[in-house]
Amino acid sequence: MSIATQVITGFLGAGKTTLLRAALGLIPLEAGTVKLFGREPARMSPQARAQHVAYLAQERRLAWGMSARAVAALGVAAIAHAGDDLARHVIRG
Description:
The chain has 93 residues and is mainly alpha-helical. It contains five helices and no strands.
């Protein structure tokens, strides 16, 4: 099994989170277009987008009394189409 990992680095306030939100179609673009697997994320349903990427907002604390692993496991249903091995990997960490 192979899971792609990408890293975005930059100074505090450089726009890393804004770049990710725009790339995922979570905020409107001021100009240009973004394609995710050949489709515009802003035009995809949340379910279709979740089959390709996962995004956990950068917040100081969660509204629920859950661990980060438990929150990540919530997304397993969205990626279950990829196979049981991937789902088990996400749950185990």
